[in-house]
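ASSEMBLY PREDICTION REQUEST
Request ID: AP-0331
Submitted by: J.K., bench scientist
Number of chains: two
Total residues: 231
Priority: normal
Notes: Please return the full assembly, not individual chains.
Input sequences:
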Amino acid sequence: ELQLVQSGAEVRKPGESLKISCKASGYTFTNYWIAWVRQMPGKGLEWVGIISPRDSDTRYSPSFQGQVTISADNSITTTYLQWSSLQASDTAMYFCARGRYYTYGVYSWFDPWGQGTLVIVSS
Amino acid sequence: EIVLTQSPDTLSLFPGERATLSCRASQTVSKSYLAWYQQKPGQTPRLLISAASTRAAGTPDRFTGSGSGTDFTLTISRLESEDFAVYYCQQYGSSPFTFGPGTTVDIK
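STATUS: Completed
Returned structure:
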């Protein structure tokens, strides 16, 4: 079964670092892009960025460039989203989602989605 | 960056009625690379439509996507109880891949 399983909810203080994960199964991990999407409480969806596990090609939304890092570990079919210094404004639900087959390039809709990881940043 | 505007913000309808949701882009969406998602409270988004009009696996045929260029529409022909949700459009024709703010379809 094709699925993306994300790590559990996290509570951190401002200034702390964090790395959340998204483990893929049920398909060839390196053949598809993986994206990260933010949803702040009660708000809409925002595209954070996307990575190709095949060659680690990574693109970021300008809104998130320099604020987060997306990476992948092909040996364990897992993608990561990390922060070096969290801010209260990073409080949100973060979803990973599979993009398209790599031959289509980075231009992806997203399906399926992971269950989401809630990140709470509070002093 | 392409900005997507969705209208209306909220659509209040009875079950069985037709819903028409609009998504307008600030620039032409390349190759009609426009997707629609459904999100119910407490759930993850679900892909309904890609490439403006191609239903995803499992999407009922009462959902129809149409449009090109800068104007796109999602039509739900006869609303069923499980269709009351928030709908987002997303363009993936040019990076950054942006989402619209969403349209809430609720029960009148």
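REVIEWER COMMENTS: Chain A touches chain B at residues 35, 37, 44-47, 50, 59-63, 95, 97, 106-116 (CB under 8 Å).
SIGN-OFF: pending second reviewer
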